[in-house]
Amino acid sequence: xxxxxxTEIEGIRIFYREAGDSDKxxxxxxxxxxxxxHMFRDLIPMLEDxxxxxxxxxxGFGQSDIPSREDFVYTFDHxxxxxxxxxxxxxxxxxxxxxxxxxxxxxxxxxxxxxxMVRGIISQNGNVYQEGLGEKWKARxxxxxxxxxxxxxxxxxxxxxxxIIGQYTNGTEEGFVSPDGYSLDILYxxxxxxxxxxxxxxxxxQSNVRMYPEFQKYLREYQPPLLAVWGKNDPSFIPxxxxxxxxxxxNAEIHLVDSGHFALESRCGEIxxxxxxxxx
Length: 280
Known about the structure:
Blueprint: E1 3-9, E2 12-19, E3 26-30, H1 43-47, E4 52-56, H2 76-89, E5 95-99, H3 103-113, E6 118-123, H4 136-145, H5 149-154, H6 161-169, H7 179-188, H8 194-222, E7 226-231, H9 240-243, H10 245-248, E8 253-257, H11 264-278
Helix pairs in contact: 2-3, 3-8, 6-7
């Protein structure tokens, strides 16, 4: 049974889902953009007999608060701090983590801080290698190096309904993606200050790319068990990002699935089975 809760971190109301018995190994699920913990709605029931699962909405996402930009600095480092404080508040000292998209830098920042706590990593299109950056990131790099108000406004197209639908459906066989997920994400974009908050994070994503060498160093030094289960048709984080884990983790397991960025929408059963085998 999945339970739905709110807790307070740094004065911010954080929404989270919890499932599974407390005597099971913990798995933290870190969602991506433009989604929230609802992206795990099908996965959690497939894993709750094996794990004690926590999936929180990041600040500014989903059902969690969107604190003002005057009161909250929207950087990935700060999001990681909040999620680490959430981990601490839940009393979690050992965990597996599932990282996707924006959830990858959040999870890996926590792993850098607490390497001894990480039992294993499932990276689902959660990139930490230059090789995994698709073509669109070349234009983003230009924006990061020469930020203008015009480009900031231009990148607000990432929050447009057609863009979000495309993130869900591109690279996936027609008819296999329910409209439920992307319809909810589109609804969330209507919240006050959403576009400005998310624009701050788009600009700050460059900090994650700068951290890639640190994330890779962590992998080399600590050799955490890792499963890269990847939607191979993802135009944002291309499959070379999954294969690159082998450079630092020779024992990494790579599992490419015939889907796009939001691979859980069409290949949830396949991904769940891969996770169950990986954690046996």
